[in-house]
Amino acid sequence: MSLMNLTAVQLGQKIRAKEVSVQEAAQASLESIDAKEDRLHSFITRIDRKKVLARADEVQKKIDAGELTGPLAGVPVAVKDNMNTKGVLTTAASHILDNFVPRFSATAVERLEQAGAVIVGKTNMDEFAMGSTTETSYFGPTANPFDTTRVPGGSSGGSAAAVSGAEVPYALGSDTGGSIRQPCAYCGATGIKPTYGTVSRYGLIAYGSSLDQIGPIAKDVSDCAAILETIAAPDEKDSTSIRRDSYAFTKSLTEGVKGLKIGIPRDYFGEGLDPEVKKLVLAAADVLKSQGAIVEEFDLSLVQYAIPAYYLIACAEASSNLERFDGVKYGYRTKDYEELHQMYKKTRSEGFGPEVRRRIMLGSFVLSSGYYDAYYLKALRTKALIKAAFDKAFARYDVILGPVAPTTAPKMNSSLADPLKMYLSDVYTVSVNLCCLPGLSLPCGLASDGMPVGMQLIGDCFREDNLFRAAYAYEQARGPVVSPFAREEAAK
Amino acid sequence: MAHVIDDETIDYVGILAKLELDGEEKEKAKKDMAQMLDYVDMLNELDTDSVEPMTHVFPVNNVFREDVVTNGDGSEEALANAPERKENQYVVPKTFI
Questions:
Q1: For a Cys staple, A6 with which of A10, A437, B7, B64, CB 3.0–4.6 Å?
Q2: Is B77's CB within 8 Å of A103's CB?
C-alpha cells in the first residue's frame, strides 16, 4: 500500500494526525510519477522536486502552527494545464503558449494553495480543451491507466489518468462539454462539473465562456465534495461567478436516497449506446432503487439537437476568446514576417493545431454577417428549448441518471480522423453545460474488455446536494474501482 | 441540402479568423466546414420562431462596486511574456505598408 492509494481526504487525515508528514506525501507522489510517466504521460510540466519539497515544508510548518486545518492541507495535487499557475509554465497544451509563464494564479488554484495544497505538476489535455481524447495536445497523447493502448478521454485526460494511475490523490479539471465527466468515465475516476458560476473562472484559459467550469477529479465522491467546498466561492474577478446559498457539499453525502426521485431519460438509452454500458448504468439505477430511491423512466426530448447547438455556441465563443493569441502580448510569435496582419496570420496558423483551427474557423463563420441569425442565434434559441425540457424534468425528478459516454475508452489513433463522429460521442454531456447544470460522473463497473464504465448524475442548478447523496449511496454499495497502475502502486 | 463552401467564403473566413490557409489545407477546411454545416442544419427541424435566443441561463444584473484602485502598476507583469518589447511597450511589426 502506498500513500498514493489513499483518497485525498484520507491522506489529509493522516497528515493532520501526524501519521504522515507533508514531505512524505509529496515524495510518494513524485516517486509514483517518476515510475509511471514514461508509460502514462499524464503531465506536461512536472514541478521541480526541490520546489515541491520546499513547498511541502512550508505547508507542514503551517499545519504544525495550527494555521492550516482543512481536509486538503498537505495533500499533493495536479492541475490541468489550462489554469494559470504563477511562475509555472501554463500551455493549454498548445504550441502558441508553449513558453508562457503566468504572473498570477487562477482563483481556483489560489484557493487550493490557501488550503495547503502542494501542486506537483500541470496535466496534459486536448489543445485549449478542444477534443475528447487528449490526442490533440501539442505535447503528445496521454495513455489510459486501465489499458495504455487506449485514450484517457478528454479534454482533462491528463488529470483523470494521473488520479486513476495513482500519481496524485486528486486533480483539477475543467469541463466545457464533458471534459471532466467523460475522462473520469474512461479512467474509472470520479468528477463533478458544478453549476455554472460556482467556481471562479478567473485565470482559466477560456474556451467557451458560457460553458466552462472548473471542477474536481478524484478517487471518490467524498473527495469531490471536499475539493469543491475548497475551490467554490464567489469571486470579484469573475463577473459570472455566483454567490450560492450553501457551499456545504460534504454534509449531503450521508443523507441517503430514501424518497429521492430519479428520472431515467429513455432517449439516453437508445441507438448508439453500447449494450454493456447500458446494462451497467441501469444496474446502478437498480442499486439506488433498492436503497429507497424512486426510479422512473421518462422522455427528456430534444436530445439529438444538443450537439449541433453546443458546437455552434462553443465554436463561436472559442473564435472570440482565442483572438487574443496574436503573437503580441505573450506566447509564440512566428519567426518570419514583414507586416502586422501577416504576423498575426502566420503566428496563429503555426501556433494552433488542426482541431483548434477548425473550431475557430467554424466559429468565425457562424458569427459573421449574414450567417449570425441562421446559425448562432438559432443555436441560442435551441438552447432555450433544451433548458425548458430540463426544467420540465426537474419539476418531477431530483436527479437525472444516465450514461456519460456511449462506449468505453476508444483505442488511440481511432478518433481524430472523423471529427464529427468524435463530437457525437459527447451526446450525453453537452446539455449539462448548455443549461448550466451540475453533472457528476462516477464509475459503475467494468465492461467485459476490462475498461471502466461511468454513470452520470445530473441535477437542477444549485442542487449538487442531490448528486452527492445519490453518488455516495451508490458508491458505498459498489466498492472501489482500481486501475492496474493503482494496483502496481499498492504492491510497492 | 448539401452545403458547398467556395473559395471566396473560405478566404473571408480566413480573414475573420486571422488564419493563413495554403492550398491543401484550404480544400480540407472547405470540406470540413461544409460537413459541419450539413450536420447543424438539423436544427432547422425545430420551429423556434417564437423562442427568444437564450444568452444567459441565470438572470444577469449589473453589479456595482466603488471604483477604488486595488492593484499597483502591473506593467512589468503584463510585459513579462511579450515576444518583443521596448522599454514599457509591446513591439509590433509595421502596421502601414
A1: A10
A2: yes
Confidence of residue B22 (pLDDT cuts 50, 70, 90): confident
- From the candidates A362, A367, A421, which should be mutated to test the interface with B, based on the most B CB atoms within 10 A? A362
Cell 496534459 belongs to residue? A124
**How many CB contacts within 8 angstroms connect chain A with chain B?**
152
**Contact assignment for B54 to A383 by CB distance below 8 Å:** yes
CA distance A237 to A241: 8
**Closest B-chain CA to A304:** B42
Distance CA B10, CA B6 (A): 6
Write out residues 32-91 of B within 8 Å (CB-CB) of A.
32-33, 35-37, 39-40, 42-46, 48, 51-58, 63, 65, 77-78, 80-84, 90
Residues in chain B within 8 Å Cβ distance of A343: 92-93
Nearest to A436 among B20, B29, B58 (CB): B58
Residue B37 belongs to domain spanning: 1-46
Interface probe, candidates A381, A433, A436, chain B, greatest B C-beta count within 10 A:
A381
Check whether B63 has a pLDDT greater than 80: no
Cβ atoms of A84 and A90 closer than 8 Å: yes
B36 part of a folded domain: yes
In DSSP terms, which residues pair with A455 in a beta bridge? A403, A442
Closest in A236, A365, A435 to B33, CB measured: A365
Distance (Å, whole) CA B91 – CA B40: 42
Count of domains observed in chain B: 1
Backbone angles phi, psi at A63, to 5 degrees: -65, -45
Task: Note if A155 is an active site residue.
Answer: yes
Within-domain flag for B72? no
Q: Which residues of A352-365 are buried (b: 16+ CB within 10 A; e: fewer)?
A: bbebbbbbbbbbbb
Q: CA A337 to CA A254: how far, in whole Å?
A: 62
Q: What is the CATH number of the domain that holds B18?
A: 1.10.20
Residue-wise pLDDT tens digits, A93-137: 999 999 999 999 999 999 999 999 999 999 999 999 999 999 999
Q: Report the candidate in A381, A375, A360, A394 with the shortest Cα–Cα distance to residue A434.
A: A381
Mean pLDDT of chain A: 97
Q: Is A14 exposed, middle or buried (CB count within 10 Å of its CB: 0-12, 13-18, 19+)?
A: middle
Strands A261-265 and A399-403: parallel
Q: pLDDT digits over A354-398, tens only?
A: 999 999 999 999 999 999 999 999 999 999 999 999 999 999 999
Closest partner residue to B82 (CB to CB) among A329, A345, A385 is A329
User: In A174-251, where does DSSP find H-type helix?
Assistant: 181-187, 221-231
On whether the CB atoms of residues A91 and A46 are closer than 8 A, the answer is no
The shortest C-alpha distance from B25 to chain A (Å) reads 10
Predicted ipTM > 0.90: yes
